[in-house]
Design goal:
- By secondary structure, this protein is mostly helical.
- Helix content is 65%, strand content 3%.
- A two-stranded antiparallel sheet has the order 1-2.
- A hairpin with a 2-residue loop joins β1 and β2.
- The longest helix is centred in the N-terminal third of the chain and has 21 residues.
- The relative contact order is 0.08.
Length: 147
């Protein structure tokens, strides 16, 4: 059964809603919590728009993007809860704990994580024998020029 709304359409709707609300949350006092919860939604929605298939679905990638959204939300909430606790708060690795979350969890951790995930799944994205045979059937052998 086909879904009523594709993931791409839903992501565009989320972006169209989040962006004006984020601008308002920047200017109006008391909307910091809304800002903290919506900021991580925007990059995940952009990932959905970019990764959606022709039919608008994202398949199993949805689980990974949901995990990414939960991770980003946890990081942003952690930083928000620790705001203002610089001098008297606990220090982790020489930094106040909100800054530790920002520096290590948002900037340094994704680099080895993405490199490791790419390395672990690299072989799945190469051509297999069936795909090579299909390409040779369609376009001829490697010695012949392509049309």
């Amino acid at each position: 059964m086909a879904s009523i709304v594709s993931a791409r359409t839903l992501a565009f709707g989320v972006l169209a809603t989040c962006c004006p609300v984020l601008l308002l949350a920047c200017w109006l006092r008391g909307l910091e919590a809304l800002f903290v919860f919506l900021v991580p939604v925007v990059p995940v929605a952009l990932c959905v728009v970019g990764a959606a298939r022709l039919d608008g679905s994202i398949g199993r990638l949805g689980w990974g993007l949901a995990a990414l959204l939960l991770y980003l939300e946890a990081c942003f909430v952690g930083m928000w809860l620790g705001r203002g606790e610089v001098a008297g708060g606990p220090w982790v690795l020489g930094l106040p704990w909100p800054m530790t979350i920002q520096f290590y969890a948002l900037f340094l951790l994704p680099v080895p994580l993405m490199a490791s995930l790419y390395a672990a799944t690299f072989s799945r994205y190469g051509f297999n024998d069936a795909e090579l045979t299909d390409l040779r059937r369609r376009f001829g052998s490697a010695e012949e020029p392509l049309p």
